[in-house]
Amino acid sequence: MEKIVSNTFQTLAKNKTANRMAQKYGLKMGAKRFVAGDSILHAIDCVRKINDAGMVAMLNYLGEYVHTEEEASEATRNCLLTLDSIYDTGIKSNLTVKSSSLGLDVSREICVQNLRKILEKAKEYGNFVRIEMEDYSHCQLTLDIYKELREEYENVGTVIQAYLYRTEQDIDDLNHYNANLRLVKGAYKESPEVAFPKKSDVDKNFETIIKTHLKNGNYTGIATHDDAVINEMIGFTEHNHISRDQFEFQMLYGIRSDLQKLLTENGYKVRVYVPYGVDWFGYFMRRLAERPENVTFVLKNTFK
């Protein structure tokens, strides 16, 4: 039953009609728990509170799968505005972007041009930009673009997903670039031809790639809310004398605030992923697909 519910939300995440309806009715039915708001002002207020609690953030202007150059230009403009706002307000946050929102499905050239504009602005401000990983069809393209830009910029990183069979090889390959990676389990619906169908296999691979990347001496964003994984990595880093300056725990806005606080109090760097913008529906659906308790929360909100 849980798998059926998850698949339903994964399918809805890409449904254009549902997305349009969601944007029409705004951040209702519990979405505000996971999305900071529809404007940069809401996002800045949210990050200030996160900073006041001793944590840092990564802001994401929501949007994906745009199909025109004009839409990609608008998304780029909002990413540049986000960087301006981070600098002007002095909040502690970097920026994370989706290649598909910057025109990857229009043309590779347009996407790279837009990414260069963003990276140049971030470099000017002394900030960092992470290129997110999306579904499998975008994986190799995203990595190729990352490698190209990494040759030019030091302030760029990307994301690797543990549920893909190819991931261990990607970790080895990216070691040549001293890649700053956000390591995640993966949140998109993928075929068993390219991804582990069993959660236990994903969990095992997740711990393996984190340990490999840390042992390689590269900066690692450990993106998880899983207590077992976090405890394992705390023990691993202590046993191997890996500096806390080489890694950070990354969590999503609205999920496990108690754990975020506990890790911060124990001296670990915690970075909270803070999404904002009007195109929030796909992101929200994937959060519901990931965790049954998120669905319960939304249902309670709906019938209050």
From TrEMBL:
GO terms for molecular function: nucleotide binding; proline dehydrogenase activity. Substrate binds at residues 98, 286-287. It catalyses: L-proline + a quinone = (S)-1-pyrroline-5-carboxylate + a quinol + H(+). Its cofactor is FAD. InterPro entries: FAD-linked_oxidoreductase-like (IPR029041), PRODH_bac_arc (IPR008219), Proline_DH_dom (IPR002872), Proline_oxidase (IPR015659). The keyword Protein biosynthesis does not apply. Gene3D superfamilies: 3.20.20.220. SUPFAM superfamilies: FAD-linked oxidoreductase. The keyword Flavoprotein applies. Its EC number is 1.5.5.2. This is proline dehydrogenase. The lineage of its organism: Bacteria, Bacillati, Bacillota, Bacilli, Bacillales.
